[in-house]
Design goal:
Serine Threonine Protein Phosphatase 5, Tetratricopeptide repeat, 2 domains
């Protein structure tokens, strides 16, 4: 009798494990979408993000407090350009509990809907909560963008500097840093930033034009 119980229990555990293995993974789908974007396959990337969203919805039906699902849901909506939907999802998530990942995504969504006040508030909140977080460099970049658009160039310069310090491999960020340094009259440091942008992307016309201006 005991032997039969053990066998049945083992079979049940094996079945549960098999079902879990077959269940789609939202994070894998999201990352696959990012890889497809990099590979120049935007339609396939969008399909992967849409699949990730459906998995997240299922996960949230099973556990309405699943913050991993909320995070991936928000990221996928932003990648699809559905910023208004991302704002709603992130705000619902933050009603459950505070989560720095969701806060940063909310900041991005607000930025792309031109609500710069809320974008800045959420990005700065993320940086305060996770100064060395995975998205800290991106948060600093968006802080810089908001300050640049509001003509607060010294603050923009500091934010862009933090962004490239944490993640020095993005040419756009170096270009933005060069442009604000040029605007505030710091030609030597603007030259350095434009050169870094061109080192990463030699065909970057705007950076090359900026370099020509500051050298002149």
């Amino acid at each position: 009798m005991k032997r039969r119980i053990v066998i049945i229990a083992f079979a049940f555990v094996s079945l549960v494990s098999l079902v879990a293995q077959d269940k789609p993974d939202a994070l894998k789908l999201y990352r696959n979408g990012r890889d497809l974007e990099v590979a120049g396959r935007p339609d396939d990337a969008k399909a992967a993000y849409a699949q990730a969203i459906e998995v997240c919805k299922t996960d949230l039906d099973e556990n309405p407090k699943n913050m991993d699902a909320y995070s991936i849901y928000g990221w996928s909506l932003v990648r699809l350009g559905k910023y208004a939907d991302a704002i709603v999802v992130c705000q619902d998530a933050l009603k459950v509990t505070s989560d720095s990942r969701v806060t940063e995504t909310l900041g991005e969504a607000f930025f792309y809907t031109s609500n710069y006040k809320e974008a800045l508030k959420n990005m700065e909140k993320y940086v305060d909560a996770a100064p060395k977080g995975e998205r800290a460099s991106t948060a600093y970049f968006f802080v810089g963008e908001v300050y640049r658009l509001n003509k607060q160039l010294n603050k923009a310069e500091m934010a862009y500097s933090a962004a490239v310090y944490l993640e020095p491999g993005i040419s756009l960020w170096w270009y933005r840093l060069g442009s604000v340094r040029e605007s505030i009259g710091d030609k030597p440091k603007a030259t350095e930033a434009y050169q870094r942008a061109l080192k990463l992307r030699p065909d970057y016309k705007e950076a090359n034009d900026g370099l020509s201006r500051v050298r002149t």
